[in-house]
């Protein structure tokens, strides 16, 4: 649990962001890496958040696992799933495995690994799936603060065990394609779980691979005078399986994968990431704490959470900002 002051009010998230980084070796990957992919893993393994995220209600915190693996040609892929169509929220969406923080989760990494195990049967072994990095959090539309945890799968013989009530399908997608406006030209042969199939469907559909829409900010319940003056950009990528009923990769999942790919490949995407005047994550979180929706307000009341005190910390937080300059990290490599 997060530290509390004498009144029992949460004051920090620092305990959630403690994690173990085993030493990685390039020769441990099941397939030889391309030079570009090796550099990607170095960039990710040396990435550090500027500082842990400021306080936020624990019951409104979540994590997702960005599970990468090396294909036979040496390229990097990410595992994605299609949520079950019977779920009450985000039914049928294309997503990363993840979910809310449990009481027993000591760190945000524990949350991501546990959820991936429960949803798709991904082992929680930290040596077979070593941690690469933790990214700065993202704020979901339901005001849940989501932290991405990036790992590397070193065992390409893993077999999926899908939790049918939660997951319908598992597939993979090239990581580099989240920096591109055009669909990846080809897919790899099968790898761990179900590696990306051929993308002939997309060519037949003649649809644009990457598109975006700008959603007004703040949230709809706002009475702010400038609510229509700013927006948050939502990106959309086709999977190549739309003809079969698969939804595109959209919104929060797309944003997380854009950030992961940009750090890995050390370059910004081919398209503008943010809308003009888009608020940074710290501004959006501080605003939500001061103008919470019903569920966030109830969570803060249950946890005796000091919203204004936390919002002031978020006001000054400089993590999570999108930077268009070089992504080179100055941390010694562990590879």
Protein described:
There is one protein chain. The chain is α+β, with helices and mostly antiparallel strands and 335 residues long. It has one domain (14-316): Alpha-Beta Complex (Nucleoside Triphosphate Pyrophosphohydrolase). The chain is built from 7 helices and 11 strands. Strands 1, 2, 3, 4, 5, 6, 7 and 8 form an 8-stranded mixed beta sheet that branches. Strands 9-10-11 form a 3-stranded antiparallel beta sheet. A hairpin with a 5-residue loop joins strand 6 and strand 7 (145-152). The longest helix is centred in the last third of the chain and has 15 residues, at 251-265. The radius of gyration is 19 Å and the shape is globular. It starts with 34 loop residues before the first helix and ends in a 19-residue tail after the last helix.
**Which percent range describes the beta-strand content?**
15-25%
List the uncertain runs. Answer: 5-11, 195-200, 324-334
The level 1 CATH classification is: Alpha Beta
CATH topology: Nucleoside Triphosphate Pyrophosphohydrolase
Number of beta strands: 11
Question: In the CATH hierarchy, what is the superfamily?
Answer: Nucleoside Triphosphate Pyrophosphohydrolase
- Please count the helical segments: 7
Q: Rg to the nearest angstrom?
A: 19 Å
Kindly state the mean pLDDT as a whole number? 83
Tally of separate domains: 1
Name the structural class: alpha+beta
Which architecture per CATH? Alpha-Beta Complex
Q: What's the end-to-end separation, in Å?
A: 32 Å
Fraction in helix = 10-25%
Order of helices and strands: HEEEEHEEEEHEEEHHHH
Main pleated sheet: 8 strands, mixed
Shape: globular
